Amino acid sequence: MKVLLRNPKREIEMAGPRRVHALLAKLELSRESHLVICNGTLVPGDAELADEDIVEIRPVISGGA
Amino acid sequence: MVAAGSKCRTCRGPAIIDLPRHNANFCAEHFMELCRRQVTKAIEHFKMIARDDRVLVAVSGGKDSLAIWDLLIELGYQADGLYVGLGIGEYSDTSAEYARAFAVERGLHLIEVTLRDDYGYDIPTAAKATRRVPCSACGTSKRHVFDKAALDGGYTVLVTGHNLDDEAAVLFGNTLHWDVEYLARQLPVLEARPGFPKKVKPLVRLSERETAAWCIVRGIDYLVEECPMAAGNKHLAYKSALNAIEEMSPGSKAGFYFNFIDNMAPLLAGRAVSDGVELGRCSNCGAPTTGNVCAFCHLVETASAHAPVPVELVMKHGRGKR
Predict the structure, then answer these.
(1) B135 vs A contacts (CB less than 8 Å)
(2) Which residues in chain B have their CB less than 8 angstroms from residue A61's CB?
(3) Using H for helix, E for strand and C for coil, what is the string for B69-88?
(4) Structure confidence by residue, pLDDT tens digits, B193-227
């Protein structure tokens, strides 16, 4: 699957099938500070991502106070 | 993608988001219902906004400010937006586009103030000229412009997009230093005083994961990239630490913040940095100040005299661990 990452913006390939939580764990990203969008739709942690999916991992942390 | 096994707590339809702190999953419709309920609860419980208030929302083009502007309009409040152009290179240019597009698409009124055009400086230049961290000049600038725009425009409430994570992170920082004077003023509502509008934070019951999800579900385009000048700041480090705790113990951030508001803030009443301080008027702009000239006018004088500095020259190179 294609995985779009931010900060900095980049794209990587990951093998599927893989659950959302497992993908975040593999990339060492916090579940609490990211959302996962699969083929344009928000998906929960137990959703299974397939090889052909286009996935965006969107960070939700902003730095201002 | 194979459909997720998790079901919406309310309708048992397929869930789009898991919220461990609520020990529940939600579909899009019931997630939005949850967000509306949480914002309504914050507004009513803390007496933030009355139905006849004229509301000004400080809008950055990011998820939080666009989410709260959207939510307030949805909930039936009259709310205009205020965008401050900080001059942080491409980041500011893009953020302005998102703020304008949001307003135009919904027929909302957006007031724009640009530091470079209106005051003769920008944040990178201010950081260089004052030799202080950019967030310091940014905070001083935004506070002054927000207050002035709200008072000049006759708005009765100024709304900011601070969410639960923001408030918990600031509380964490102030607690690490036992900074009692700042702890005492860390409230979701600051009442109006001479020279200051009423300021409220209706997103305090929503995490930033939830405000981002609101924007995605509602189809709101926002600036995802974080401010290049904020990278590696302490605030982000505090958020990261709190999120590590939250993952182990869901609900920790909400407990930390709301138990402070319920149990600790009342004990600190009257100990805020501004309590009991006689404020005069800035001899230059008339804003409240403890000195002869306010901090903002000092900043304008120093920064506007400095040659413009491109953002790349004052960006932090190190990044905080996420």
Answers:
(1) 63-65
(2) 165, 208, 226, 236, 239-240, 322
(3) HHHHHHCCCCEEEEEEECCC
(4) 999 999 999 999 999 999 999 999 999 999 998 88
